[in-house]
């Protein structure tokens, strides 16, 4: 295991990661090496993988890919990739393929109200011509499953925007906010035209949030934004709403586009027929000849100019208009509006100025365009008063005709400024607002575990380069004043927090906060301790051999001293000391008897001492005469085998001195135990005794290889048995036999191979709390031949790849309580086993788990009401709910002096109030309430004093609302719903009467509750008018209230209308009051007249109070009818009183003689009131030549170029409207230049004007 805080050198620049794949799908693993040409091998369960139908291998440069096709349960397991000396392991987990659960289709947009002037053109929740998908995507982007889409609606219509959020991985509902413009929060504007709805589908586990707009107005158009956030995630989506004006039938008039009008923002209509009266603006017609279109369609209305609306509105309307258009800076708005009103004179340099303000998102492009009155005028662009110079591609200046455009590409926050366009001594200004998107965290912080004095570096990656972030420790911001300890570093999108030398006080939770979220990680600092991974072992070597003492410690920077019998050992040519990484070695060549001693290694700075002993093995050779029998010279020869211990992976060398004359033959054999019988007792001492036991059967394997991993080398005086890289299979009893003609000798050597333990099984997690849990595991199946000294525990966040060690001292037990975890974060655990040889491989990770604590106790528990058998309780939610959310509440009660609590309701309840029923009358009870979540119940909150279950007598009292103390008026047909609250205990008896009589009939209904009484009439009639009385009674106590109900209707028409007198232009009328006034006062009369010829009625008098009147200003010679309507608070009468006969206005006897006029001749020869002018245009852009002519009769018009008639050329279009003549040249080229003439001819003569046209090619 690499040491925390250190990164081992690897041949891979990108390592493959473990994956979880559904059965039947392919699995792809990718790895990248530091350099190309490196041989890469893929393995599964220790065996190399070769290309086949199942596995696909690909290599391209430094990128290497392994593809597992049609993954099944058999493919689950551990894989590895090997390059040079680096090996990376990863796992493949196969899950069952799950069918996506259908998501219910969104509710259709509400139907438009009857009579609305328009209807929705497109739904925001579905595309035009299609329907939304009924299934949620498997891998949604961000938090949204379905994002709100742009929508269009006509004025008065309705539209609904929908957003869906996946809730399968969320512990509590997400927070959703809707905005209009940049900052206007729509949650505070909910009302008649705007509603917000939310729902949750438990089947598909999807949250649905809706923004519903009814009776849309033109001011509702603009940009909207939906933001959704959870505890550790954030996402947002922008969309637009377009509101179209309702277009009525009828012809469209071309001249309305040029008629001077005072209506700002009115649409333009185009037509080729009908001449309407009005003043035409011919100058606009000449300047904007491109507006002539034969298409009669209406252009989309332009977006409203809020500054023009504010300029024309009164100051009392400023706040309402600002809210409708999303303006929040009211002070800046008033300042800018004041400057605009000060300069209202018409500009002489600009035809079209800059808009008051522009808005653009960061990184996008913006174009600022003006139109000049003089196309040849020089223009300067200023930014914050400084002239903008052309520099690269950042600022682009364009000039096309009279238009001047400044284009700013890749806008940044530095471009948020005031801009001005200067032409001569006149200028126009605007402001550019650069909208910065929220900065999101793309790679979170990771927990770290370090020792005191080590360097700590937190790294986090955000979505925006150079973004402003804040570093916090335990909720407190780390400022620049603490730079002596903390160092902040920015590298593009990566942000670093560096602590050079960590102390115990630096431990805690560190957070990086941005405008779009925050990342949290924990730093654990432990005191510096040294751990011995491998200690030095005793050695027994012979003369001239090499002795190597080796140990491994946890810190590769630790130095140490080697001692011999307590004295420091000085290296020389025969004694060498080395330190490579964490391994320290002492090598002694050509061992002599003087080297036999106690050797120790003492690390510097730690109270630690590693000791071992070197034994010198003497070879005893006795002088023998010729024909000496063979003999093996060992310290302990005999039948009882000597045990030789070797660490797995190390080299095993057995050097056996021999003697004999002639030279003996050496035979090495290894005893193999048959496995067909289970040993029932201890093994025999030697293979020769196998015949005396029925439980053990041995076989012997001859070892005679002279090359390879296991080899035997024999010389005259010794035989050497060597094993390179000892393995578990090399363990056993080795028999050495020497023979010659004189005799033989035999020795048994027992070799034991010890190794690190096997990896333990995956640990199990239990007793999960708010920030702790209990981890349990089983010992490894094989301890490596050495007893397990303890265990090391590690944890990591589920989405992280960094494991953090939890203990430095070995754990002796098989369980451990892990603490200091973050609530709501998913963790995994794994464990290592450690013996004297070293540390095992890590166990598989435990099942993911999340620390969740129960909620705190509810607050403000109070008794709301008490009766003889019930008690009503209410409380407020707990102050701390935690990441587990809140599942509900449980209510319990017990008698005073008793300890047995009884549940008031089975299960949990979500409301914060409850009525506890069936309690014994007169008993004194205690109540308590607990909050529950997935972690279990929280602490209870109980009533401070016992509650006596007995109702308290309270005098009845009616609480008559103020609006019911006056006469209550309702129209006929309207519902009547009169609610009167009251008090009284026990529950009072309620009695209603009308005019002293009990209420009768089913039309008037009474509804009573413990706290109020309601008088309800579904449809009121005149008969329901009268005086009502309500009375409360409790035993001999009572309270009364009186209500006066008046049901009103429309009045009947007036009576007996007649004409009293008619004289000159006047008629006198008289009538009587209506017979039925509708049960209310008559407000007045409406008098109308109608011409006998047309019978169209016109109102003469309104709200007239008298019953007689004089109608004047009548036309002589016409006959008139008259009628009168009566009015009250409900409205006018349904019918009117009408005169039966028409009244004629007589003509006086006056004779009129027509005057005589002399006939005039209006004929006139053609003449040009505005001749053609020379023009210079750019090739490729449409050009127009305009002039104006007069003449009577209407002259015939002809156009010529260099004397040639242009009527047959399709590239030229000619228009003649109201004396204005226009020649349009479509996309001219240099050959279209020349002398153009316009000739007008009629019976009185002809006229002609000419101009020169120059066509320039852009450079």
TrEMBL record:
Keywords: Actin-binding, Cell adhesion, Immunoglobulin domain, Muscle protein, Phosphoprotein, Repeat, Thick filament. Residues 8-95, 140-242, 345-423, 437-531, 630-750, 956-1044, 1166-1254 form the Ig-like domain. Residues 112-124 have a biased composition (Low complexity). One of its GO terms (cellular component) is A band. GO terms for biological process: cell adhesion; ventricular cardiac muscle tissue morphogenesis. Residues 759-855, 857-952, 1053-1148 form the Fibronectin type-III domain. GO terms for molecular function: actin binding; identical protein binding; myosin heavy chain binding; structural constituent of muscle. The keyword Repeat applies. InterPro entries: FN3_dom (IPR003961), FN3_sf (IPR036116), Ig-like_dom (IPR007110), Ig-like_dom_sf (IPR036179), Ig-like_fold (IPR013783), Ig_I-set (IPR013098), Ig_sub (IPR003599), Ig_sub2 (IPR003598). Belongs to the immunoglobulin superfamily. MyBP family. This is Myosin-binding protein C, cardiac-type. It comes from Ailuropoda melanoleuca.
